[in-house]
Amino acid sequence: MADSLRRLVNTSSFSVLQDKLESWYKDYHVISCDQNLNRCCELVELTSKIQGQLFTILNLTAREGGHYAGVDVLKSRLLPWLGTCFSMATSSVTNDTSLNLIQESVEKERKIRELSASHENDMQKMETQLCSTHLQLDSVKQDLVDAHLQLDNTKNMSATTLLATEDEILQLKAELRAARDQVETYKRKLDVLDDYERQVHLLRDEVSFLTAEKSMLQERLVRSCSPSPLPRQSRPSSPLKSESPTRAQLTNSSRHARLVSRFSDLYAVERLEAQSLLRRYIDDLEMVQRIIFIATVEAFQAAKLAYRQFKLRVRKTLSPSHLGPETLEDSVVDYIVRNLDLYDVQASVNDVINAMNVNPRISFPPEVDFALISSFIRETCRVAFAMQTLDPPLDLAFTSGGELYSDNKYRRSYDSEFTAPLVAYHVWPALVEGDGVIVKGEAVTRRGALWRSRSRSCSPIRSGSPTRTLGFSRSRSPSPGRLSASRL
């Protein structure tokens, strides 16, 4: 009996019954009729279960008292109460199971209420968040619409600006082409003007020469026509030099100034162009400058050799028909000055390239050859050939690797060691007239230059690559004997 009473106390059935009654009272006017009836039936069932447990305890207590203990209490209290026609339905489950079910039901209802309350709170929170999210979404949509509008405006402005920029670019390109065409036109006109001025100078020189010759012939004619009492002297066997100057002599000073200026232009313009062209294939600036210097020296050597050969041919052609009044040497030089275009410059260019291919002090990438700077070599050969017609002729100063630096002949390059006394290598040769320097050259001075020059001179000679085999057909200059007598 004590165990049954303890279990009844532990289940707190009456507390649960009281809680249910209070909850029903609070919700009575809120819930529907069916829900009120359900709660009432639930309370009746819970009450009947509690009463069943109490009757069980009553039965056990009466058994413990024996046959006659508690009879008076039952007769005075229980039987009159039962007489009021109250009947208790017998449960189909045991008392322990019924109490467990009641406890589980109470726990479940409490959990359901807690879950319902937390669910309602969560729903309220989610609704609040949903509302705020909807507001943010609307704001983002509005921002997106504004961004699309701004993007469209930017695209329209960019398209307009791009069209305007393209039009400006096309217009600027057209103006640039027109400016280039105009520059080319001006250059052609300037070249034509230079040709005209050159022809004018030549014609003036010819007029001066012809005037002097005419005066001389008139004097000779007057002397031959006038009677002379003196006996006619025999003509001396040795030819006398004519007092009338030739065209070469008349134009010597102007040609001298023009060729010196042209030599300076070779250094300032054509040399830099050749240097820029070579730097595309050779990274070593020293090697590039050595190549250009050797090309210049070889061009002068080839031009001097060609001048001597050309002069011999002209002398051989003019000697049978030469009558005077100028000497044969003056006639030969005058003929060469008048016919500089007969100089076979391409043959000299080929000789220079052949000499450079076997020069041990310079090297070149095998995929290209020295014909890359043939235009520079050609112009240098022409200038050098024309310098041989001067009196006295102009030539390059003698140079050697590791020579003592001279301020009279050279000026140091920007990357030189200004305290070094020896020349490491030459950038440009000096132009001399006799023993006097006309135009200074350029040299690089460094310490240990003599050792460097010896190490370079001792390097093996490189063999010409197949790409350097010259396919030029050496054009031969026309023989002066085949020229018409009118050009002599």
From TrEMBL:
It is found in: Cytoplasm; Mitochondrion matrix; Mitochondrion outer membrane. Residues 223-242, 456-465, 473-488 have a biased composition (Low complexity). GO terms for molecular function: lipid binding. InterPro entries: MIEAP (IPR026169), MIEAP_C (IPR031981). Keywords: Coiled coil, Cytoplasm, Lipid-binding, Membrane, Mitochondrion, Mitochondrion outer membrane. Residues 221-251, 456-488 are annotated as: Disordered. Residues 162-213 form a coiled coil. Residues 255-445 form the Mitochondria-eating protein C-terminal domain. GO terms for cellular component: mitochondrial matrix; mitochondrial outer membrane. GO terms for biological process: mitochondrial protein catabolic process; mitophagy by internal vacuole formation. The keyword Coiled coil applies. It holds the Pfam family MIEAP. Belongs to the MIEAP family. This is Mitochondria-eating protein. The lineage of its organism: Eukaryota, Metazoa, Chordata, Craniata, Vertebrata.
